[in-house]
User: Which sequence fits this backbone?
C-alpha cells in the first residue's frame, strides 16, 4: 500500500507545481479578477471624486450664488433666496449683452461649419498616410501656441495700419474694405474694432474644435453607403444632403457645442479685438471683480448653460443624434 | 438578341496589379449568372465595373448594347445588393427601400406605397417603421434586396449577398433568390466564392482565376467537364490525374479530371491500388484519401457503404466515362 501510494503522491506534487507560487501581488490580482467591480471602483474613485466634489460642487455653489442678491446700499450679499437677480438679467442693457453673445456664438458656429466641412471631408475621405499626418499637424499646430499671442497677432493683422489694409490698398480694393466697414452694426472704424474682426478671431481660434469631431464622424460613414446612394440614382449633391450630412450630424453638433460654448464663455478676444460693447464673459469678469456683484455674475454665468441645454434639446428633438 | 451585359476584352489594373485582365463575357438577358472564384480573383471588380464604381483601364463594357464608359453609377439602369447591405442607419426600413424613388423626386405617398409592395415581395410586411439596427441579418438582407429592386433595374448585381448569413438561412435565401429571379425575369449577376451556391442557383457560371475567366458554362458543364486543373479543383475538389497516369488507364495522354464520387473501392478488378491515408466524415458520406502510385486520389463513399480502416490497402476502380480529359493541366 505504502509503496503504491508513493508515486501517486509524487504526481500530485508535480501537478500542483504547475500553478505558480502565490505571492501578495498574485492574491491582489486574484481578488480583482474575482471581483471586477472592485477594479472598476479603484479606477473611478479619483475622477469621480473630482467630478462630484470639485466640478459639480463649484457648479452648485455657482447656482446657489445666483439665487442670492446684493444690497444696493451696502454692497453686501444678502443670503436669502430670491429671483430678483435673474430679473435683473432682463434689464435692456443686460439683455443686449446676452443677445449680442448668442448672436456672435451662432455666427461663429455657422462660419466654422462652412469652413470646416470641406477640410474635414477631404481629411476623412481622401487624405491617406503623409497627407493625413499633415492634416492633423495643420489643424493642431495653432493649438500649441499661446492663445494671447494669436489674438494679439490678429489684432495687428486686422488693425487700420495692418496687413489687410495694406494689401487691399495695394490691389486697389480699399473701396471694398471701406464698404464692408461702412456696414451698419457689424462694421466699424477698422476691422480690429468691429464685430467682423471679433468674429474672424473667434472663428480662427475655435476652428480646430469643429474640424476634429466633424472629421471623426465623416470617417465613420462607410464607403459602401455612398456607393449605395449613387447606385440608387442619387447625384453627388443628393448623397451629400441625404446620406453624408445626416450621418455626420452628430459630429457637427459635437463641434458646434465646442464653438458655441467656447465663444459664449470667452472674455479675452472681444476685449482685445472688437468694439467696446460687452459680451457675457466680460460682464461676468467685471461683475465679480470691480463691481463685486457675485450674484449677478453667477446669474450671467448660468445663461450659457441654459442656452446650451435648450440647444441640445432642440437638436435631439430634430433627430440630430438618430445616426448614433 | 442583345446581351444584358457584355465585356469586350475588359481590363482593370491597379498599378501593377491586374485585378481584371482581358475578360470577355456575355450575359444573356433574364439569366441568373454567377461569378465564382476565390478572393482576389477579380469577380467583385467585374461586378463593380458593371455598376460603374470602377472604370476599365482597357476594353469596353456594354449594357444592353450601349457603351457605358462615360455613364456614372447613378445613371445606369443596374442596381446592387451590397455585401454589407449598406442600409442607411438614420432612415427607417420604408425610407431605405423608397430611397431610389425619393432621389428621383417621386412624391411621398407613391413611393411609400411602392416601398410597401416591395417589402411584401421580400416578406417583410409591417417592418417599414423599424430602423435597420433593429433587424436581424437575414431581414437586413431582404431590405437591401427590396431597396435595390425599387428602381426596377434590368440587371441586379449581388455582391456575396449571403456571405454573412448562417448556413440554414443561407439555404433558405438561395431558394428565395432563385424563385424571385424567375418571377421577375430580370438578369441577376451574382458574385460568390461558394461553389455550391453558384452551382445550385445559376443558369451560367463564370469561374474566375487571377483576373481572368478560367471557364464559363452551365453548372453541369463546369462540374462535369472542367477545362483546367484550377476549375476541376476549385469546383468540387476533383482528382486531377497526370497525363502519364491518364495514358496508363487508356485515356488520351492529357490531364484528366476524376470526381471523387465516381471512384469505387473494390476488392477485384482494381485499376490501381493504394493505402488509405486519411478519412473525413462528412455526414452524407465519407471522403477517403488513398495514396496511390502517381499521387493521392480522393474517394467519396456514400452513407451506408463500408468504410475501410486507415492504413489498409484498397483497390480503386472507375468507369472510362468518369474520366474527363481537360484542355490544360
Assistant:
Amino acid at each position: 500500500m505504502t509503496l503504491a501510494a508513493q508515486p501517486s503522491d509524487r504526481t500530485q506534487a508535480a501537478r500542483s507545481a504547475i500553478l505558480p507560487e502565490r505571492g501578495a501581488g498574485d492574491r491582489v490580482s486574484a481578488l480583482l479578477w474575482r471581483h471586477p467591480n472592485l477594479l472598476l471602483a479603484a479606477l473611478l474613485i479619483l475622477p469621480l471624486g473630482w467630478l462630484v466634489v470639485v466640478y459639480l460642487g463649484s457648479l452648485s455653489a455657482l447656482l446657489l450664488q445666483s439665487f442670492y442678491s446684493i444690497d444696493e446700499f451696502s454692497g453686501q450679499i444678502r443670503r436669502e433666496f430670491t429671483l430678483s437677480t435673474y430679473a435683473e438679467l432682463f434689464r435692456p442693457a443686460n439683455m443686449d449683452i446676452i443677445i449680442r453673445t448668442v448672436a456672435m456664438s451662432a455666427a461663429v458656429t455657422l462660419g466654422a461649419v462652412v469652413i470646416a466641412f470641406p477640410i474635414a471631408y477631404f481629411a476623412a475621405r481622401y487624405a491617406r498616410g503623409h497627407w493625413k499626418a499633415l492634416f492633423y499637424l495643420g489643424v493642431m499646430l495653432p493649438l500649441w501656441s499661446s492663445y494671447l499671442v494669436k489674438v494679439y497677432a490678429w489684432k495687428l493683422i486686422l488693425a487700420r495700419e495692418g496687413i489687410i489694409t495694406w494689401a487691399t490698398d495695394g490691389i486697389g480694393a480699399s473701396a471694398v474694405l471701406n464698404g464692408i466697414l461702412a456696414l451698419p452694426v457689424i462694421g466699424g472704424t477698422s476691422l480690429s474694432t468691429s464685430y467682423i474682426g471679433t468674429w474672424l478671431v473667434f472663428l480662427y481660434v475655435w476652428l480646430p474644435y469643429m474640424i476634429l469631431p466633424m472629421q471623426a464622424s465623416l470617417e465613420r460613414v462607410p464607403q459602401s453607403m455612398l456607393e449605395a446612394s449613387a447606385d440608387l440614382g442619387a447625384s453627388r449633391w443628393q448623397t451629400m444632403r441625404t446620406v453624408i450630412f445626416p450621418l455626420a450630424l452628430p459630429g457637427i453638433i459635437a463641434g458646434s457645442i465646442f464653438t458655441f460654448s467656447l465663444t459664449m464663455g470667452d472674455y479675452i478676444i472681444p476685449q482685445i479685438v472688437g468694439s467696446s460693447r460687452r459680451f457675457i464673459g466680460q460682464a461676468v469678469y467685471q461683475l465679480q471683480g470691480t463691481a463685486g456683484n457675485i450674484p449677478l455674475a453667477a446669474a450671467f454665468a448660468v445663461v450659457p448653460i441654459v442656452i446650451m441645454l435648450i440647444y441640445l434639446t432642440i437638436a435631439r428633438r430634430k433627430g440630430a443624434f438618430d445616426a448614433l | 438578341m442583345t446581351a444584358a451585359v457584355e465585356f469586350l476584352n475588359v481590363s482593370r489594373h491597379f498599378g501593377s496589379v491586374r485585378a481584371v485582365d482581358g475578360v470577355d463575357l456575355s450575359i444573356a438577358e433574364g439569366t441568373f449568372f454567377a461569378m465564382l472564384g476565390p478572393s482576389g480573383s477579380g469577380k467583385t471588380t467585374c461586378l463593380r465595373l458593371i455598376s460603374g464604381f470602377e472604370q476599365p483601364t482597357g476594353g469596353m463594357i456594354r449594357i444592353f448594347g450601349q457603351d457605358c464608359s462615360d455613364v456614372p453609377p447613378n445613371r445606369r439602369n443596374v442596381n446592387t445588393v451590397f455585401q454589407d447591405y449598406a442600409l442607411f442607419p438614420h432612415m427607417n426600413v420604408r425610407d431605405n427601400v423608397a430611397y431610389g424613388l425619393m432621389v428621383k423626386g417621386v412624391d411621398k405617398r407613391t413611393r411609400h406605397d411602392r416601398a410597401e409592395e416591395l417589402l411584401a415581395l421580400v416578406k417583410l410586411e409591417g417592418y417599414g417603421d423599424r430602423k435597420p439596427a433593429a433587424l436581424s441579418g437575414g431581414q437586413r438582407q431582404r431590405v437591401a434586396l427590396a431597396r435595390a429592386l425599387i428602381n426596377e433595374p434590368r440587371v441586379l448585381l449581388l455582391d456575396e449577398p449571403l456571405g454573412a448569413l448562417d448556413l440554414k438561412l443561407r439555404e433558405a435565401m438561395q431558394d428565395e433568390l432563385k424563385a424571385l429571379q424567375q418571377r421577375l425575369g430580370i438578369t441577376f449577376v451574382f458574385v460568390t466564392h461558394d461553389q455550391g451556391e453558384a452551382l445550385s442557383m445559376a443558369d451560367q457560371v463564370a469561374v474566375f482565376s487571377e483576373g481572368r475567366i478560367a471557364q464559363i458554362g452551365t453548372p453541369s458543364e463546369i462540374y462535369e467537364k472542367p477545362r483546367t486543373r484550377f476549375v476541376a479543383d476549385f469546383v468540387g475538389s476533383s482528382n486531377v490525374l497526370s497525363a502519364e497516369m491518364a495514358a496508363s488507364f487508356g485515356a488520351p495522354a492529357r490531364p484528366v479530371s476524376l470526381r471523387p464520387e465516381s471512384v469505387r473501392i473494390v476488392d477485384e478488378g482494381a485499376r490501381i491500388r493504394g493505402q488509405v491515408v486519411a478519412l473525413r466524415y462528412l455526414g452524407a458520406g465519407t471522403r477517403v484519401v488513398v495514396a496511390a502510385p502517381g499521387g493521392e486520389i480522393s474517394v467519396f463513399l456514400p452513407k451506408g457503404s463500408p468504410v475501410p480502416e486507415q492504413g489498409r490497402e484498397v483497390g480503386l476502380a472507375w468507369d472510362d466515362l468518369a474520366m474527363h480529359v481537360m484542355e490544360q493541366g
